Amino acid sequence: MTTAPSAGAAGAGYDRLRPRRSCLAVPGSNPRFLEKAQTLPADQVFLDLEDACAPLAKEGARHQIVDALNNGDWKGKTRVVRVNDWTTHWTYRDVITVVEGAGPNLDCIMLPKVQDATQVRALDMLLTQIEKTMGLDVGRIGIEAQIENARGLVNVDEIAAASPRLETIVFGPADFMASINMKSLVVGEQPPGYPADAYHYILMRILMAARTHDLQAIDGPYLQIKNVDGFREVAGRAAALGFDGKWVLHPGQVEAANEVFSPSQEDYDHAELILDAYAYFTSEEGGKKGSAMLGDEMIDEASRKMALVIAGKGRAAGMRRTSKFEPPAG
């Protein structure tokens, strides 16, 4: 049974559907990487306090992240900080330091290793208290929930419904592979001996939960950072299913992710033509038709819905049309 968000939860009314084709991971303890990330064309940058940050470096990294958020040039990027998970003793201080120090310049908190909805609601409550204390807009800061083990996947529907702050459900493949004893040491690649796609169920399970609650679905990292062809293949699998983007760990993966998770120019143009044509044919001028022909293709309301998805992705990517709908003569 799905548990409703707590009464104190906030976040409704904010636009949660941001471009996230490429989600760049940046160690919060590395000033050079923090600076470099600002120059890369990633849709989202998440400054990491978890796995990319050694235990002895975490406290200092919090303050480096605050400084980078407040003084860096992140124009055009979604700004996210991944804190440590609730089973550690670092989480609450991660959130307090970062949000109190840089709340106006922060878009989301990413919570790793989410196993049930109570963990998301706890973060929601803490964010609300900080926002009220600091005079920030209550509910503006979003939450990204990362699914990294079997329990999290089993509870993903409840997790996706846990808070109106939620923006994405993120697949964390490395920890997930370990949690189910998958026979592979190469994160993102298929395990030897299995003739099908070992990740299909996992990705579809996350995608269904995300779409049920109007959230975005993000695929996790591909660790062979110099194998761009391999990255494209794995990213293409997630994009084909309907995922919105993928983590990138290296500048060389950014362009590939942006390309894979954007429609082709041909598909984008066609989607816009369908929308224009359907709007015309359903109008008084166009004959108030429920379906019509666009060239050799019949279009209807279902076509419009499919076209909206492709057109939306193209617009978010900044694509421009190269064709125009012309109503039929006479």
In words, what does this structure look like?
This protein is α/β, with parallel strands linked by helices. The chain is built from twelve helices and ten strands. An eight-stranded parallel beta barrel has the order 1-2-3-4-5-6-7-8, surrounded by six helices. It has a two-stranded antiparallel ribbon with strand order 9-10. Helix 4 (117-134) links the parallel strand 4 (108-111) and strand 5 (142-147). The longest helix is centred in the middle third of the chain and has 18 residues, at 117-134. The chain is globular, with a radius of gyration of 21 Å.
Tell me briefly what this model is.
The protein contains twelve helices and ten strands. With 330 residues, the protein is an alpha/beta fold.
Report mean pLDDT, rounded to a whole number: 92
The general outline is globular
Beta-strand level of the residues, as a percent range? 5-15%
Helix content: 40-55%
Oligomer state of the chains in this structure:
single chain
Count of separate DSSP helical elements: 12
Strand and helix order: EHEHEHEHEHHEHHEHEHHEEH
Based on secondary structure, the structural category is alpha/beta
- Terminus-to-terminus distance: 57 Å
Kindly report the spatial arrangement of strands forming the biggest sheet.
1-2-3-4-5-6-7-8
Described by strand count, sense and barrel closure, the largest sheet is:
8 strands, parallel, barrel
Itemize the secondary structure elements and their pairings.
Layout lengths: L21 E6 L3 H7 L6 E5 L9 H14 L6 E5 L8 H12 L5 E4 L5 H18 L7 E6 L2 H5 L1 H5 L5 E6 L1 H7 L20 H13 L3 E4 L8 H14 L3 E4 L2 H10 L4 H17 L10 E3 L2 E3 L1 H16 L14
Parallel strand pairs: 1-2, 1-8, 2-3, 3-4, 4-5, 5-6, 6-7, 7-8
Antiparallel strand pairs: 9-10
Helix pairs in contact: 2-3, 3-4, 9-10, 11-12
